[in-house]
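Example record

One chain of 71 residues, shown exactly as stored in the release files.
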Amino acid sequence: MRYPVTAVVHGHAHHGRPEGKLRDGVPVYNVAQALLRQAFPDRRTFRLLEVPRGPGDDSAPACGVVGGKAG
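Predicted structure tokens for this chain:
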């Protein structure tokens, strides 16, 4: 990989799975609204991801809402 990353988030692939991994184990999150509706019909169409801080940072993880509509 050209740059080290913690996770990959994309929202254009309307088919597939909600989560996957790259060859090096980096998690990939599909946040396409159509896929989220299909995969989680009883939930709202957004994902909340918790991302760990960098080495040596003991503060709480960062959180963010991605994809779809939150409310």
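Notes: The two ends are 36 Å apart (CA to CA).
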